[in-house]
Amino acid sequence: MSTERLYWHDAYLREWSAQIVARDQQRVALDRSAFYPEGGGQPADHGWINGVAVVDVQADDHDLVWHTLAAPIDSDSVECRLDWQRRFDHMQQHHGQHLLSAAFDQLFNWRTVGFHLSSEYVTIDLATGEADSEQLGEAETLANQVIWQNLPILARFVSAEELATLALRKAPSVTGAIRVVSAGDFDHSACGGTHPNATGAVGQIHIRRSEKRGESVRIEFVCGGRALQDLRWKNAALGRIAAGFSVAQPQAEQAIERLREQEQQVRKQFQQAEQQLLEFEAKALVEQAQRIGQLKVVAQVWLREPQTVRQLANLVAQAGGVALFGVAASKPQLIFAGQGLDCGAILRQVVAAFGGKGGGSVQQAQGGIAEANDLAAALELAKQQIA
Predict the structure, then answer these.
(1) Which of 66, 105, 245, 382 is most buried, most CB within 10 Å of its CB?
(2) Cα angle for residues 42, 45, 48 (degrees, 5° grid)
(3) What positions belong to coiled-coil segments (predicted)?
(4) How far does the chain reach from its first CA to its final CA, in angstroms?
(5) Measured in whole angstroms, how far is the alpha carbon of residue 233 from the centre of its chain?
(6) Could you give the strand order of the β-sheet that contains 178-183, starting from the edge strand earlier in sequence?
(7) Tens digits of per-residue pLDDT, 192-223?
(8) Is 88-242 a CATH 3.30.980.10 domain?
(9) How many whole angstroms separate alpha carbon 300 and alpha carbon 317?
(10) CATH fold for domain 4-82
(11) How many Å apart are CA 381 and CA 374, to the nearest integer?
């Protein structure tokens, strides 16, 4: 027993009657169904059977189509209704993929080796190492021109004789009866999915981005209603950005670039000012440092970023002092820097006493201990080692 697939004959059929021929918990198989089962990169249709939501559709190895329901139903005679908005969206995206893949194939001989239709966008993987923006634009334009020609789309099972006369874009991956979807003479593809009756129903194709993935290039795009929504929010966002800069939309990019340049200048000035402040701070710390023998030792626990404390320690060393710094953070750290002693040897002894680890050179060393509460004691031990 198999399910008669009504969408093969009429992709626009939205309502029909059927009989349940098999049950499996909340799954039912119908004698005839227009619900498309997931496959070939196209998601399953949704809809309702006797008013109960159909949440998934799958075909088994015996060509029986199973419909997963949100709740059980008792009757064997059922009325079915398709979620037409979802179906038409899938038809737009799927046939848009056919046209875009054919455009890349005809223009650059780039075969499509992967296809995925998600709830937000469509991707195809092209057998090429790279694709620049001009090539993407050329293929996008060609595919849209075919859409605007509103070529008839013919989906049918063909005989072996007719199949031999068609220039298929890709050899069929199945045996037996072959279903071919043709967009005029522009593209002929073996496909079991749902498609509109003419290319104009795709609306338009909009490539959003591309990325290199191994030995192929992945193209992300949207078609029809999704393309309209995508361009609509982008236009709204661009309008808000332009209004924020008090410029027209075409000048928004230049305004952002000017802002970026200003931000880089301000960042550079801030870094220079921060460096000067740290230098002043380091000199003040050395002037007030504790003398241990001939060394001016600055021992202190900081609640600052480790990178800033590390920079301050180096400046203390440059100013002629010895920095014994602790950083009270989620991972407590010790940072030692200075001349006239072996910072690495002293730090290794200190962290070992507090269950930590670390190391470094004679002039600079860094390590960590388990508890922030032990930082002050660790610095005292370091001063004792120096003495």
Answers:
(1) 382
(2) 175
(3) 249-283
(4) 93
(5) 19
(6) 153-158, 178-183, 187-190
(7) 999 999 999 999 999 999 999 999 999 999 99
(8) yes
(9) 14
(10) Elongation Factor Tu (Ef-tu); domain 3 (2.40.30)
(11) 11
Can you say whether residue 79 is alpha, beta or left, with left for phi > 0 and alpha for psi between -120 and 50 degrees?
Answer: beta
Which one, of 333, 338, 315, 323, lies nearest residue 371 by Cα? 333
Six-digit token string for 115: 């296809």
Query: Does 175 have pLDDT greater than 80?
Result: no
- Return the structure tokens found at 305: 């970023």
The three state secondary structure string of 182-242 is: EECCCEEEECCCCCCCEHHHHCCEEEEEEEEECCEEEEEEEEHHHHHHHHHHHHHHHHHHH
Q: What mean pLDDT do residues 124-145 have?
A: 97
* pLDDT value for 6: 97
Which amino acid belongs to residue 30?
L
> Closest Cα to residue 313, out of 347, 351, 286, 346?
286
The total of other beta-carbon atoms located within 10 Å of residue 363's CB is: 16
Domain 280-386 has CATH 3.10.150.10: no
pLDDT tens digits, one per residue of 7-20: 999 999 999 999 99
